[in-house]
Structures are given as C-alpha cells and as structure tokens.
Specification:
- The protein is mainly α.
- The protein has a 3-stranded antiparallel β-sheet.
- Helix 6 crosses helix 10 and helix 10 packs across helix 13.
- It is built from 13 helices and 3 strands, in the order αααααααβββαααααα.
- Strand 1 and strand 2 form a beta hairpin.
Length: 301
C-alpha cells in the first residue's frame, strides 16, 4: 500500500512537471484514477498487475452504472496516461491499456456565431460606462485572436506588439505562441488604454491588460457574465460563452479559405485532430453554399 501511495505521488509530479498540467486538470485526472483504484481494491488486484481483461470489466462497470460515453472516454484517457507513466518509469513491462478502446461518441459541433451576430453583441456595449470600452476591446480580442478565456484574462500589456500586429499568448502547459491580431482589435485596445490609465492597479497586476474596477485581472466568471449579458441584450438565443467566440474565429477562418494547420497554430492546439472538428462545420457551410448557388440545385421546369 505504501508503494502504491509512492507511485501515485510520483504520477502527480509527472503530470505537473512532464505534462505541464494545471492543478484543476491534475485533480480531474486523480478523481478519474480513484475510480480505478476502488475497482482494483474491490477485486483484490494490484494496480501494477491489472490485465486487459480486468480493464474491460472496469469499463463495463462504468457503462452499467450509467456513466455518459463522453465521461467514459475521459476516464479511459486518464487511465491510459497513468499506465504510460508506469511503463516509462519501469513499474510495468507491458501496457495493459494498449488495446483498450473508448466508446464511440457522436460528433457534437460547437455553437457558432455569424459575423453579424458578433457585431450585434459588440454594438450592445454601452461605451459611456467606465467598463464599456474595456468590454468592447476584450470581446474584439477574443473573436479576432481565437483565445481561450484563461488566455484572455492572463494577457499582458507588454505582450501586445502594436507595430508588428501580433500578441504573445501563454496557453495550456505554459506554452507560448504568437497570434496575429486584427487592426480592429488593436484600435479597440488603444481606445481602452486611455481608460485603463485611470484605474488604480493592485500590486502584482501592473502588466495585466484587461483590469477589473478593483485593479486586478478579470476572473473567468466575470468574462462569462459579460458575454451572457451582452448576448441577451442583442436578442441572440444561442448558448454563447467565451468559447463560442473561439469556435467562431476558427470557423470563419476556415470558411474564408485559411489552412487548417495555420488555424491549429493560432489556436494553440497540440494535435491537428483537435482542429479537424472545424472541417465538419466547413463541410456543412460548403453544402449550404452549393444548395444555394449551384445551378443544378435548382428544380428544373
């Protein structure tokens, strides 16, 4: 048991240092791994001695208790990561998860806003309010650069290169990337900086670009709230979040003819397969265009 705890401690360090995961992601991995630990305890199996058949039985139990296929897939992914670590560190000689398959999950296309809908949301912002120009600049950057909400709230003023037309973004795993920024977004930032000068900044937040009225970095929840409020004011019924702006950024790029690999780099996706979901959206767009404009799509008299 003591050795088991030692392995779990080392695995935690592996996730933190080697995989560069956030504390929230590490907690999620550990919660999923605990499900397997309870299973091996009940079955009286050592975690290092588990077989492929044992794992199949474990997955069957997940299914039997009604765990959603998407959650099953996440749990299996976490278990595969754990056994990869055991293999790399020499605790086991063969990976029992190698043939373990995740359940098939139907493709869930993300919600996408049209350019007109995004403009409608931006137009609802009251620029006479102290936070008005900040909110407009913030949402313009979110859409123009396809940022994650955590990347937006962590954006620093020195990382905006006005002359070059780029911003430096720190993404998942503290990986940095350069993302082109539109003239429209830069213009909104310049206007916001005039207001930012009057904010009393708290110590440790001096470089943060988008500040709260208290002079600290905005929270993720605050960004969600701002978007929800402006979306409702625009009369848009879609379920809109900061991630919707990111999805819209990628979709509009692809519809405009951008290369999938370039979109991958701009969004900070480690794997091209993550970006490939947008090809499904693009196919629907192309189908609609053909049905609308191709002469053979019109009924013949």
């Amino acid at each position: 048991m003591a050795q088991g705890k030692d392995i779990l401690t080392k695995y935690n360090t592996y996730l933190q240092l080697e995989k560069s995961l956030s504390s929230n992601s590490i907690d999620a991995y550990q919660r999923d791994l605990e499900k397997l630990l309870r299973f091996v305890s009940t079955e009286k199996i050592e975690i290092k001695d588990i077989s492929y058949n044992d794992l199949q039985q474990f997955v069957a139990q997940l299914r039997d208790v009604g765990i959603h296929p998407r959650s099953q897939a996440r749990i299996i992914s976490g278990i595969k990561s754990f056994y990869k670590f055991l293999l790399l560190d020499g605790y086991i000689e063969a990976d029992p998860t190698e043939l373990l398959e995740s359940p098939k999950i139907g493709l869930k296309l993300p919600e996408v806003l049209s350019e007109n809908e995004i403009n409608s949301i931006l137009d609802t912002i009251d620029l006479s309010l102290p936070e008005g120009q900040r909110n407009r600049a913030m949402l313009e950057v979110l859409y123009s650069c396809g940022l994650r909400v955590s990347e937006l709230t962590g954006l620093r003023y020195p990382d905006v290169y006005f002359e070059e037309g780029f911003i430096k973004v720190e993404g998942k795993g503290s990986k940095q990337r350069l993302v082109p920024i539109s003239e429209a977004a830069l213009h909104e930032i310049k206007l916001y900086l005039l207001d930012r000068c009057h904010v009393k900044v708290k110590k440790g937040h001096e470089d943060i670009l988008f500040l709260s009225r208290r002079g600290t970095a905005l929270s993720r929840i605050m960004v969600f709230h701002i978007i929800k409020q402006q979306t409702e004011m625009a009369g848009i019924k879609k379920n809109v979040s900061p991630h919707t702006f990111r999805h819209s950024f990628a979709t509009h790029l692809l519809e405009g003819g951008a290369n999938l690999r370039a979109i991958q780099d701009m969004m900070g996706h480690e794997k091209i397969t993550t970006t490939e979901i947008y090809t499904h959206i693009d196919r629907e767009f192309l189908r609609r265009e053909i049905l609308l404009y191709h002469p053979r799509s019109k009924p013949r008299n």
